[in-house]
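Write out a sequence, fold above all:
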Amino acid sequence: MTYPAAERAWHLPEAELPIAPDILAACDFDELIATILLRRGFNQPSAIRAFLDPSFYTPAPPESLPDLTRASELLAQTVRRKGKILIWGDFDVDGQTATALLVDALQRLGAHAVYYVPQRATESHGIKVERLQALVAQHQPDLLLTCDTGVSEHSAVETAQALGLPVIITDHHELGESLPRAQAVVNPKRLPLGHPLRTLPGVGVAFKLVQHLFAIFGQTRHLGALLDLVALGIVCDVAEQVGDTRHLLQLGMDHLRLTERIGLQELLRVAKLPPETLTAERLGFTLGPRLNAVGRLGDAMLAVELLTTRDRPRAALIAGSLERLNVERRLLSRQVEEAARAMLEADRSLLQEAALVLHQPEWHVGVLGGVAGNLAERYARPVVLLGGNGAIVSGSARTFGDLDIYAALAQAADLLHTFGGHRGAAGLSLAVQHVPALRKRLSNALLKQRPEALQVPPLHIDMLCSLATLDTDFAKRLQRLGPFGEGNPPVVLATSNLHVSHAATFGRDNEHLRIVAEDDDGRTLPLIVWRGADLAVPEGRFDAAYTLSLDACGQLEAALVGLQRHAPIVVESESALQVHDWRRDSDPFARLEALRAELPEAQVWAEAYNRLDFPHFQRRAQLSACKTLIIFTAPPDLETLRAALSITAPQSVHVIGAPPPLVRFEDLLRQLTLALKNALTHFKGTVGLAELCGAVAASPEFVRRALDFLAAEGRISYQEDSQQRIQLAHPEAAAACRAESEAHLKRMRAAYEEMEAFRRYFSLMPLKLLLKPSSESAP
């Protein structure tokens, strides 16, 4: 979580348009899903269906990628003539999965493929010419095929061409000033911004190439068996989940949960993670670190072997090795992170920069990327960590938010020995004496991207809710919006007025914090702060922002992402009206009594309650000018709300918005009938429309339609004058018209549904929109 959480402002949900019927239908009539998607900018039913269900999405054809058709045909020619293919991959998880996918796919076609993945410690990223020459001499390949690398390897491609070796590059990293002179360069960054294939990671590019290749050979039935690798690479490379990338991830997650890949089965076993409980988040936090550990601290060739082997004992042996390397990675990462934080505490001036650039000679460069990501989240800015005690130091960069770390590094290219990557992550090396200059240059570049880069961005809240709302069904509904990740962040919920029941650290190294939050009704929710054991437990009342999911045992799990001291949400409108939002309080009556004790002169607008039992409640017809208005029951329509505000002209409004005591259609009609009988008996049949509406907490439209229905039924007769006074009378004897009666009943039910729909919107929509004066409203 961003540190410190209490300093991060909250961006509360913006107003959304009423949910149109076709939008609601696209969400399978789930208002929760529809509300969140509308707030996130989804306003077309077709886009919503494609987002929620991959079967409604139309993927872009593979040949949309530049050079892909040429690459596929060249591969097909090599396969047909039994040529040997040398696959050159990369040691991160995207590179591992891309390499494994190409090996698996080519083996299914009967091709002869060998692969190589460079070691992080001795070779770093890219294609080293000396190693390439040695591999060509050893294997005598007929084609060089890269994955997740190659787009900047001009020298290596020239060397391969000089050796008579055709080259196909598949990569997704940022393009340089020119492309290598390969036979094909397949890279989604060659596509325009917004193209559905542009955010594919390396494994996604490899899959699209194989998709076209399999079509040539009539083997597309095997594509599904490769999707588990695609999902693993997308998640662990933190690829932006839009377009085809999200589509492939959705399909891949389903295949991962049922994977037949022996290596993944063994890796899940050592990680103690049941495959049926896999989510993108668990994938990134469990399998990802284990595969990254072997790529960063060991030999990534083992990872590719694990992902392609059909030998279970061998897979179990490799999975055990990865587990041991992961333990080592955790230890090294913790040491580096503690040292980095100590540097920042010792020199607070470093926190004045838009990027944190830190160097220690003893830091293991293999773990710097993961630690940089953790620190970027903690300090809410990009981080560059560098290790090495020679003249040239190297390391990793990770961004924060929407800042482009690759573009910022490009602005300092003259200081760098090497660099490469994409907007979210990069690797680099430079002369050690240039580290201070890099810090300044990088910070200036980031401030040009976003002048407010030094400010912690606000936390966007998707929905406000009480603990009473939360259950496993609610969490399962939220999961429909997944997989979550870059481009589709987890849904952030917020609950107000909580206190700590108890708290404790947990985890293998007690590095995590669990805070059990409790509301006034005794409901509790465990809030987990990952890597937050050092953070202070909140005191007193607080509001919490969190993401909600189900743990491996199917129980609710909430990850804390923000804290604020508890206070009602106050919105200043243009007319200086102070609005206090209490709609999320779990006990409306307790809140009302507290407000009345604090504000004894306040006027309480509440309808449909018995006047003898609640003499302090005012219905709309009894409202008068006041300084403070408490809206206890949710109004039935916008016009009634605006009219009440016009009459009372308050300086301050406290909104509780509880449901009225009459909710069911039948109860409403029965109570209205009693009110009409009372008017006929005691007031000579004369009653104001507002008085009838207040008696049942209903809209004028509903009451008028109800009067029409009762008149058609032959139970009353009535007239309404220009002053909205109703004159009732007993009807003359006449047979009721069934058809007319049914038509009025239908209109009355429609008015009831509109009233209930408005109350649902009233509970969700920002009050700054609802409480605008009518002159400011849209027509």
Q: What stands out?
A: Residues 347-449 form a domain with the Diaminopimelate Epimerase; Chain A, domain 1 fold (CATH 3.10.310.30). Residues 1-6, 570-574, 774-779 have pLDDT under 50 and may be disordered. DSSP finds 25 helices and 27 strands in the chain. The two ends are 43 Å apart (CA to CA).
